[in-house]
Amino acid sequence: MKHNKGWLALAIMVLIVVVDQVIKIVVKTTMPLCDKKEVFSWFYIYFIENNGMAYGMTFINKLVLSLFRLVAVGAISYYIACISSKPGTKTGFVVTLAMITAGALGNVIDCMFYGLCFTESTPFSIAEWTTFGNGYESFLHGKVVDMFYFPIIQTTWPDWVPWVGGDEFIFFSPIFNFADAAISVGVVWVLLFYRKELSEIPIFSNGKDKDKDNGNANGNANGNANGNGN
Predict the structure, then answer these.
(1) Hey, which of 14, 15, 46, 82 would disulfide with 149, CB 3.0 to 4.6 Å?
(2) 141 alpha carbon, distance to own chain's centre
(3) In this prediction, what percent of the chain has a pLDDT beyond 90?
(4) pLDDT (tens digit per residue) in 200-215
(5) Which residue of the set 20, 110, 146, 159 is catalytic?
């Protein structure tokens, strides 16, 4: 069973990355930038690109973000490999970590290779495959492809609401991709059901472990001192 968890994690990661990349490549090579196709009144395929994190957020330098993603993918993958062989590791916890890792990897592939493999997407032209290295950007500077848009509620703020009165209100307005969805589901799943396992990851538990060890050491020292005194 312990090996099955590792293989399960690998299978989930491969599946998520393949599905994510197929969707992105199809969108990028068949739609101009900012093109929007209605699937339902509350669901659109809306092609955009971004330099940032999940859901188009941007607050870190592009190169730093890409390198951070690579390190994170490597670190979490190594951790999954370690815990998969330990008895008592919950399969669901391994699955959630695999989803998060695969999502991060799916987006970092865009950053690593899309700028090298494709011509630039614009509102007036559709991207095409090109000779490797002759694309629109350099290594690690490619743009992340997003396409899922769910404007479930579209209305207008009442005029009496301060600052936003009369403005358009859309829920849910962020545009995201399959990799973003995998990350979000994985994170929510971990926080809801695996907080105990999360707290045992060394990066989160060092302080507690040190305090516990110090407490045990102090207790042993006091016990020894009392015993010697008697």
Answers:
(1) 46
(2) 18
(3) 60
(4) 776 555 544 444 445 5
(5) 146
| Average confidence (pLDDT) over 162-172 | 87
Give the chain's mean pLDDT.
Answer: 86
Alpha carbon distance, N-terminus to C-terminus of the chain: 52
> Is 180 in the active site?
yes
Cβ contact 50:58 at 8 Å: yes
Is residue 209 part of the annotated active site? The answer reads no
pLDDT for the residue 154: 87
Catalytic residue among 110, 159, 180, 209: 180
Give the C-alpha separation, 19 to 207, whole Å. 39
Instruction: Give 73-117 as a DSSP string.
Output: HHHHHHHHHHHHTSTT--HHHHHHHHHHHHHHHHHHHIIIIIHHH
Above 70 in pLDDT, residue 49?
yes
Number of other CB atoms surrounding residue 162 within 10 Å: 6
Taking CA atoms, 10 is separated from 14, 78, 180, in Å, by: 6, 12, 18
Point out the least confidently predicted range of 41-50, 150-159, 183-192: 150-159
Peptide bond into 59 cis (omega under 30): no
Distances (CA, A) of 146 to 22, 38, 89: 13, 15, 34
Q: 91-125 in b/e burial notation, b at 16+ Cβ within 10 A?
A: eebbbbbbbbbbbbbbbbbbbbbbbbbbeebeeee
pTM assigned to the model: 0.81
Q: What 3-state DSSP class applies to 178?
A: helix
